[in-house]
Amino acid sequence: xxxxxxxxxxxxxxxxxxxxxxxxxxxxxxxxxxxxxGTSVLILVxxxxxxxxxEINTRILGAVPHVTMYSHFSLVEWEEYTxxxxxxxxxxxxxxxxxxxxxxxxxxRAEASLIxxxxxxxxxxxxxxxDFMESGSLEDLKPGQFTIVLGNILAASLGVKVGDExxxxxxxxxxxxxxxxxRIRSFTVAGIYGLGSEIDANVAFVHINDAAAMKKxxxxxxxxxxxxxxxxxxxxxxxxxxxxxxxxxxSDWTATYGNLFASIRLEKRLVxxxxxxxxxVASFNMVSALVMLVNDKKGDIAILRTMGANRGVIIGIFMAxxxxxxxxxxxxxxxxxxxxxxxxxxxxxxxxxxxxVDFLSAETYFIDFLPSQLLLSDVVIVGTATLALSAIASIYxxxxxxxxxxxxxxxxx
Length: 413
What we know:
The protein is built from 13 helices and ten strands. The chain has helices at residues 3-16, 22-60, 78-88, 120-123, 152-158, 208-215, 234-244, 254-296, 298-306, 311-355, 376-393, 395-402, 406-412; strands at residues 67-75, 93-106, 109-118, 133-136, 147-151, 165-176, 179-193, 203-207, 221-227, 248-252. A six-stranded mixed barrel has the order 2-3-8-5-7-6. A hairpin with a 2-residue loop joins β6 (165-176) and β7 (179-193). The two termini are 29 Å apart.
């Protein structure tokens, strides 16, 4: 008869068998709970970090240009450059722009803003802004009508809605009979968007012709913005474009948001390592629990040895006991972690609504909700590593049990 089923059977029985000391049962329970909590929290944290990375890629990098080419000269025939770039590079969209930096004022309030002059026909296929319009549309930006589209946070700060008037003030100086004055123009709010990110608080859009009129550059544009299928190709494309088009200053999204993306990746690794160490501590608590179990079962071990069980059977019993305990803790932790990761956004939103608190604000952070993206690879890695640690932690107590002398044990019973 094979010894493996016997070792497994007895090891499983020892999990639920009554022990002489309730303290041993308590330590075993704490060990299993520690594994479950550590595993579930690690899966949850990794999923939240994945969610933050996803939101950067979609809500922020989906709304900002991946590569920007600033012209050193008056750029009128910009279509020639966009057609040439599309033929040479894998570019999803290439659109012209005029950039304004100024102050928007309404109802006695003022906010510093970045105003992008865009061509709505091209822009709607390049960015995701049009997909997140709360009212109005980018197509409502008509040349010569001086209309503007705002983020919902910016609109709330100014106290305006669609159809209201606001004033744009640019720092460029205009000479008049009254002296040097900043450029001022009234705009009508044509739309409000809400990406749920920091962009909502400081970015507005106007028609490119109106932006050019405000900047007094005639029919020229300031440059070209490129949108790529893969945002991580931006640094390479920027380098190639900078070498080929020396009449342009070329930058990419990593100059503005690269540090944010890198910090999230670094935090994911550091927090993951920290939580993994917590799981390691919980796993090696199993050493103490199994050592005490071995001491508690010395009589049983002696009886098994006198009945013909060899050292391998005894080792297998306690290896099975520790591994099964690790499996219970890991399995319950994985299930809990998957459930929490799936519903954490809804849970946090419910807590915010009940207690009237904001865990994340788009004015402080780059998004205003807690995202989550559960990856099967994270679940597999965490679960496998936790089980491996549990099995490793069982080795020493099992070897110690295998070395127990039957005669000494029976003598002390």
